[in-house]
Amino acid sequence: MNPAVTVSLGIAGWSKEISTSRLIAEADAALYSAKAQGRNRWHRYGVENSARVDEPVEG
To answer: pLDDT value at position 5?
Structure first.
């Protein structure tokens, strides 16, 4: 039996204007969005969260 391992990723961009706590919050929001879309996906958090990209992870 080979157990399946999947990865969900939340990605957030950093700039000097963004605090560390905000960066973590955006990455966390992106992670939960990726998980909501299903397993083995990534989600990038955009400035207005409308510039996001959801893609399956290729493996």
So the answer is: 86
Q: How far is CA 19 from CA 24, 38, 46, 56, in A?
A: 9, 29, 15, 29
Question: Amino acid letter at 9?
Answer: L
21: how many CB neighbours lie within 10 A of its CB? 8
What pLDDT does 51 receive? 39
Q: Which residue is listed with tokens 């399946």?
A: 4
Query: Residue 47, SS3?
Result: coil
In this structure, what token pair is assigned to residue 36? 């909501």
Pairing verdict, β 41-45 and 54-56: antiparallel
For the chain, residues with pLDDT lower than 50 are: 50-53
Dist CA 44 CA 55 (whole Å): 9
